[in-house]
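Narrative of activities, Objective 1.

The group set out to show that a structural description can be obtained from nothing but a protein's sequence at a throughput compatible with the screening campaign. Below is one input-output pair from the validation batch, recorded exactly as produced.
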Amino acid sequence: MRRAVELAARGLGSTSPNPVVGCVLTDPAGTVVGEGWHRRAGGPHAEVHALREAGEAARGATAYVTLEPCNHTGRTGPCAQALIEAGVRRVVYAVPDPNPQASGGAATLRAAGVDTEAGLLRDEAEEGNIAWLTSVRRGRPYVLWKYAASLDGRIAAADGTSRWISSAASRADVHRLRAEADAVVVGSGTLRADDPHLAVRGVAGAEQPLRVVLDTRATIKPGARVLDDAAPTLIAVAEDADTRHLPGVDLVRLPRDGRGLSVEALLAELHRRGVRSVLLEGGPTLAGAFVAAGAVDRVVGYLAPVLLGAGPTALADAGITTITDALRLTITDSTPIGTDIRVTAVPDITAGPAAATPTALKEH
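Output recorded for this entry:
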């Protein structure tokens, strides 16, 4: 099963709106006879790849699958039925399928006389598929907020310069995060300050994520780098924004909420477009709005051994006015990356109020 989890990870960034899934088949002696993973939406599922590799050796085999085999016909057939027809004797899966349209595979297998077992390495499999699982359970994309800062929490110097606070190794690692995400999101403040490109570089075989700019008043210029043809781009603007200077640009108009755009409306639109994971790259105002809306599922901070003493901080107003309302985090990983430290943390849902309730994206 651990090997199946490793295989599933190979599909990160290329399977949405479907989950990442890995499958390993072993014969009665425990020898691996087939492996597979879901490679892209619309293509064969992990079980089918493994069955094809195993051939006749699948008869009487045990299948180890990271997610309960699907039980519905979409662009591909039901995997539960494929396992039955191949003569698989036993199926061990890590995570029950929470999608009501596809669940029930285990019951179908049992009805056909196939032994089933659930829950093996469930935590590891859930972690590897957390974006898709979150999207199904919450009805919105999974959001990872990434930032790079000095050791004293500054993302730029007092004069606004920020290149480069983090190391080349950290910047390369960010491209890995982009490659694993369905969409990369920034605000217009970051766009004006940095003119970022937001496409993936240096990751072989990566599928480019959707580049999303939150630009309430449609201030983006037609020559912005994010509007080139390296990757698709979506510009989110207010319903009353003047966009006549942006012919041919993919636009979505969102309702205002307070002084900006609705976080919920943005995430709902991205979910409708098949986006299951979002990499939130900046800046501090946009990050504060997502934190205030309770819409940050993971934080990855690249902390550089640099002291600035002044300049903008990584997080702006997040609607938190007292220490008792602080968003408490649990650190899940701390890893040296080049000369920096990459710290990964998730909200601690047991530590009191998770976030404030405002849901507006302030002007960005």
